UniProtKB/TrEMBL annotation:
Family: Belongs to the iron-containing alcohol dehydrogenase family.
This protein's record includes keyword Oxidoreductase: yes
Record bears the keyword Repeat: no
Domain called Fe-containing alcohol dehydrogenase-like C-terminal: residue spans: 164-345
Residues of the Alcohol dehydrogenase iron-type/glycerol dehydrogenase GldA domain: 14-153
Assigned keywords, A-Z: NAD, Oxidoreductase
GO molecular function, one term: metal ion binding
Lineage of origin: Bacteria, Pseudomonadati, Pseudomonadota, Alphaproteobacteria, Hyphomicrobiales
UniProt name for this protein: Maleylacetate reductase
Organism field: Pseudochelatococcus contaminans
Family annotation (InterPro entries): ADH_Fe/GldA, ADH_Fe_C, Alcohol_dehydrogenase_Fe, MAR
């Protein structure tokens, strides 16, 4: 059990990592004086929510299983209605389910106990992305930071192979961008490098043997490291590109991160070679080519054309990506971004 300080004035986050912590939801609730949990899941994970209701017995208030990508406000409102009479949230799932818990907490201040089942890392950040009228906004508030995180490797052991790989690369992308963040510091550098190393070593093992709980624990620890660094320093080109492609072309979250990472890293390596060098070393010396080879070795999707983006969309994607200026180690130039997108669309090794 760890207690991690977050932001000044914010209570400590309690984190437990290890096989079997799933069974501790009730004792964590009791320790906080909580007795009526609203359990959140996606429709696909409703059975896992049902199992938690059974496990919690009288401490269960209800289950709400309509969590969805991008945290639509209508679903948050329906969940808040279902939360009437509950005194806490138990979210079991990936970034979408955890996002719903955060959106409820923002409006109700209900404490959150979260059980991550992907590597996306949302549980470790005070950041919420939510969608109203088709527009996604991202906000930062200590109110949305979950109070208790239970990382149980058995929960990621059920992740299908493709989501295991793309979600792991999604987590690594937080750490790669943290290395060249404008507000990077020696601690964030160490978190980022340890996170990248945990996935470089652990992902091939969990792909070869999905039920390897030691390797699942190593990768979940990587997810904690990468999520923590995502919440600590600013992100740049890679996250903005994924946000644009996800929001405007409805591309799937983890796959988009997985495909773009080698290309955004190669783009920024021209300006941040020194910052990226320790990560490049982990992948044979070249960050872009090395990450591409790593992804290919795990059978990750490598080309945007394979996840539903049309080549005729690339011009508009490039226009959108350069529309709102933001800080990046290398200047954001339209022609260079258009070339990056072409490579990512084709799946060319950068
Ligand atoms: P997700 O939560 O959308 O899950 C994808 C699908 O996989 C769902 O159907 C889900 O039910 C299923 N699934 C999840 N875990 C499973 C398991 N162990 N076994 C079987 N099926 C499982 O995917 P995600 O990539 O974790 O989350 C993406 C969302 O999270 C995006 O909206 C993204 O913006 C957000 N996010 C937010 C933050 C933040 O800090 N706010 C960080 C990372 C991601």
């Amino acid at each position: 059990t760890f207690h991690v300080g977050f932001e000044p004035g914010h209570p400590l986050v309690r984190v437990r990592l290890g096989a079997g912590v799933l069974a501790e939801i009730g004792s964590e609730m009791a320790a906080l004086g909580l007795s009526r949990a609203l359990v959140l899941t996606t429709p696909e994970q409703a059975a896992q929510g049902e199992a938690i209701l059974a496990q919690l017995g009288p401490r269960a208030h209800a289950r709400f299983s309509r969590a969805a990508m991008h945290t639509p406000i209508e679903i948050t409102e329906a969940a808040i209605a279902a939360a009437h009479g509950a005194d806490c949230i138990v979210a079991i799932g990936g970034g979408s389910t955890i996002g719903l818990g955060k959106a409820i907490a923002l409006r109700t201040d209900l404490p959150q106990i979260v059980l991550p089942t992907t590597y996306a890392g949302s549980e470790a950040t005070p950041i919420l992305g939510q969608t109203a009228n088709g527009i996604k906004e991202t906000l930062r508030s200590p109110k949305v930071q979950p109070e208790v995180i239970l990382y149980d490797p058995e929960l990621v052991a059920t992740l299908p192979a493709n989501l295991t790989v793309t979600s792991g690369l999604n987590a690594m992308a937080h750490a790669v961008e943290a290395l060249y963040a404008r507000d990077a510091n020696p601690l964030s550098d160490q978190l980022a490098l340890s996170g990248i190393r945990a996935f470089r070593d652990g992902l091939p093992q969990v792909v070869a043997d999905p039920g390897n709980l030691d390797a699942r624990e190593q990768t979940l620890f990587g997810s904690w490291l990468c999520g923590t660094v995502l919440g600590s320093v600013g992100m740049a080109l890679h996250h903005k590109l994924c946000h644009t492609l996800g929001g405007s072309f409805d591309l799937p979250h983890a796959e988009t991160h997985a495909i773009l990472l080698p290309h955004s890293a190669a783009y920024n390596a021209e300006a941040a070679e020194r910052e990226l060098a320790p990560a490049a070393e982990l992948f044979g010396g070249s960050i872009g080519g090395g990450l591409h080879d790593f992804a290919a070795s795990l059978n990750a999707p490598l080309a945007l054309r394979d996840i539903g983006l049309a080549e005729s969309d690339l011009d508009r994607a490039a226009d959108l990506a350069v529309k709102n200026p933001y800080w990046n180690p290398r200047p954001i130039e339209r022609d260079a971004i258009r070339a990056l997108l072409q490579s990512a669309w084709q799946g060319t090794r950068p």
